[in-house]
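Tutorial, part two.
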Amino acid sequence: MENIICESLPDGGDNLIVDIRDENSFAYGHIENSINVPAAKISEYDFPRGKKLYIVCLTGRKSVQAAEELTKRGFEAYSLAGGYAGWLKACLGEAQADIAQKTEEGIRGRFSKKLFSKFAKAIVTYNLIDAGDKIAVCISGGKDSFLMAKLFQELKRHNKIPFDLVFLLMDPGYSPENREIIERNAKNLNIPLTIFETDIFDSVYNIEKSPCYICARMRRGHLYAKARELGCNKIALGHHYDDVIETILMGMLYGGQMQTMMPRVDSANFKGMRLIRPMYLVREDDIKAWRDFYGLKFLQCACRFTDTCSVEGGANSKRLKVKRLIRALKAEDPEIEQNIFKSAENVNLSTVIAYKDKSGVRHRFTDGDGAPALPEGKADDPRR
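Running the prediction step on this input gives:
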């Protein structure tokens, strides 16, 4: 077994490229003609004999171990040095000089209806931008935030509402390779980044329970603080329609509550600051279509620990399970996604057993009707 470099990766014939990342990461972006066999399934997967296997993980670490295991089983297996991130970096080095112009033309033309129109509709529907705003467009390095940046640039070009933009990238401790990929994408897409650094990754490295959730909360606090320092009154995040419906179901199935991801939220800790989600009505499949049409390549997660630890976005994450559930339900009924989204708009309090108001006070449907309370531990008769 040996490592191979990105430039020597063969294609077709007796060669098989095997991506061992989880299915969500693979769906987000992968090497053309590769197959997805998550690392946990490598030992039991029946690969065709006589094929040379080229193993790909995110950074080239896990693929070495997987290739060694396959070699012991009698396969001719190689590890891709640098992994998917290395391959991605090599591809970005060959980016078209006019890719920014092409994507902008696409936003005004081919993808206007599904991307820009829905972006603008969300801004109007949920009153996300006011005259005089200075908005920190938060760049994570993925497809969603980069598209959001391009949509904001297009909106600014129309100049119907006077507002200012800062394209804000927080480096919480990215590996040099991941940060370079983000910066190359920003340069190719003509997005001027304002970069600041924190040590968040180091702070959450030894946290075993929900490290990604804690990391996200810490990152948001730093983004608010930096945005305010730069004179911004709002931060914009790239959550989209599919994130919204997944959050609704996750709250019900895993949190025992009915709630949604709001299109705008006033910060409780940073007075006068507001979070907005202008991609609220944009579908993820349409974002992927834009990305793929122009051959754009982004990292799903730039966390430097993604390839060496178990993260919440992995193969068994709650969000991925909900994604699969929605996908299965949609195969039976194409209206499922729309109905989940609408469920958060069509709440009838007269048919809800209990709810909490803005101050957190719980109200029950029996309040004020003089009905006696049920004995502790006894349920109401379901036949009533």
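Residues 307-315, 376-384 have pLDDT under 50 and may be disordered. In part three we will examine how such features are distributed along the chain.
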